[in-house]
Specification:
There is one protein chain. The longest helix has 18 residues. The protein is of the alpha+beta class. It is built from nine helices and six strands, in the order αβααββααβααββαα. α1 crosses α3 and α5 crosses α7. It starts with a helix and ends with a helix.
Amino acid sequence: MGLDVYIEGLLFYKAVPMKKAAVAKALGVKLEEVSAGVAALKARLNTGALRLLETDDTLQLVTAPELSHFMEGVQKDEIRGDIGKAGAETLAIILYRGPVTRAEIDSIRGVNSSYILRNLLIRGLIERSSTKSGGGYAFSVSPPLLQHLGVTEKQHLPDYARILDQLEAFETAQQAET
């Protein structure tokens, strides 16, 4: 397999914009090699559903512009539906524990939360920001959701201190098991 396939796989797995330098490091190649792989990937993706979005220093997989109308319909369908038990569970973790990374959410829930997080982001219930280490995103509750819940700070949520203590006890127990 060519370097373009590895770049595509990495970007697909990460599902967020990545610095070209981080891609080079993850793949154990030089930045110049990444440029060649990017050119090959762009050429290969040119007729499919995905495109490679390239800025001066970042790369990201995105849907083809020709699919924008279709994707808007898919997004509207997702927003109309119920967030479900998994969505409510993830939202509660973010409400009471946030800002929290996807890895931390996955650890608490015991399953991959990427799809749920995307759904909550699309609905405007949560926000994401880069972590201080630059290695991903931290998720926190959105101000409109707090306003909808009738609180101005998450510390005013019902049973905030008790639930936070329970989450910390759960995490400590999980860490002791491993």
